[in-house]
């Protein structure tokens, strides 16, 4: 099955290159085929985080690895430019970064021969057949860290179970976020002895303090990590909420940077005064909407807010990380589509730290509920903060697994 997969991948290469250039990923495109213009450190610890979300989740792990294993160089690979940018913003020259090559046998072999890592740590669930086969062939330990497997993903993998079992044979250890994730890995054929339940290292993320410009003496509602279709719902809800809460400020943070200008245009087409973070716009009494159109500043914007809607959940994306908001003491609101973060969000609901809504009308009611009752808002936020604190420790558990293979 891996042979068929590889053959199909090679046939798709011309179309992949066209798509690469069409999406504007022209810079360093040869790295996608393991041709590099600069030297890459050899013999170190390699972390793969596909995009910015996984990079953000990996930050506490990478910091710990730099501290605990100073004798090894750290290489981080990503697939997206935004992931690359975030690595460079947070770590500078403390780590090396290149793009992960496409999952072609030749490219993967060339890449591994060049970097010769002691260990590969893959964030969450990036299961590339040729990558894992090449690591197994070279006896490179592979740890799947912060691993999660939704019901939808598990059902998809079940349809190609033969290939999945081959992939799993190249994984040395799985650090699963929840017992449900662990059970799904085992059900798909992962050896139970390889699976460990560590929790999510997102609970161990650093919290940022609010800088001076964000001490906002107003009601602040943040809609974070929004997708196509969600901004319209949020803006319509905001228009109704402003009738009852005259001082309400909306901080709107789209998930993908390529959509920043499009979302800005949507905001500017409303009757509301919009300011953009990228233009160093200031928040004053006249500002209605503050567009968070920069990278890596979501925790800062959360810290300036009172109530959080976390996107990817009113549309069928599956939801995004709600722990950053909860850790900073914000009541969390999410839509019905939370299949990518179902266990954590269910726990937040059980801890009375979150509310789930199905549509715009319910979103308006939820935001109104919190801004009409300060005691409820404060208690819900505190429930979330305590929930996050109670569940910390996954990073240490993951590091104990890594020590066995470094």
Question: In a nutshell, what does this entry contain?
Answer:
The protein has 406 residues and is of the alpha/beta class. It is built from 16 helices and 14 strands.
Report helical residue fraction. Answer: 40-55%
The CATH homologous superfamily name of the largest domain equals 3-Deoxy-D-manno-octulosonic-acid transferase, N-terminal domain
Query: What is the percentage of strand-forming residues?
Result: 5-15%
CATH architecture of the largest domain: 3-Layer(aba) Sandwich
CATH class of the largest domain: Alpha Beta
Number of separate structural domains:
2
Shape: globular
Radius of gyration: 22 Å
Cα end-to-end separation: 31 Å
Number of helices: 16
Topology at a glance:
Layout (H helix, E strand, L loop, with lengths): L1 H21 L22 E4 L3 H17 L5 E5 L2 H11 L4 E4 L5 H11 L3 E5 L5 H9 L4 E6 L3 H8 L2 H8 L4 E4 L2 H9 L7 E3 L22 E7 L3 H15 L4 E6 L5 H9 L5 E3 L12 E3 L6 H6 L3 E4 L12 H5 L4 E3 L7 H9 L3 E3 L3 H13 L1 H17 L3 H10 L3
Parallel strand pairs: 1-2, 1-4, 2-3, 4-5, 5-6, 6-7, 8-9, 8-12, 9-11, 10-11, 12-13, 13-14
Can you describe this structure?
The chain has 406 residues and is α/β, with parallel strands linked by helices. Strands 3-2-1-4-5-6-7 form a 7-stranded parallel β-sheet, sandwiched between helices. Strands 10-11-9-8-12-13-14 form a 7-stranded parallel β-sheet, sandwiched between helices. The chain contains 16 helices and 14 strands. The radius of gyration is 22 Å and the shape is globular. It is 44% helix and 15% strand. The mean pLDDT is 92. It has 2 domains: 210 residues, 3-Layer(aba) Sandwich (Rossmann fold); 179 residues, Rossmann fold (3-Layer(aba) Sandwich), CATH 3.40.50.
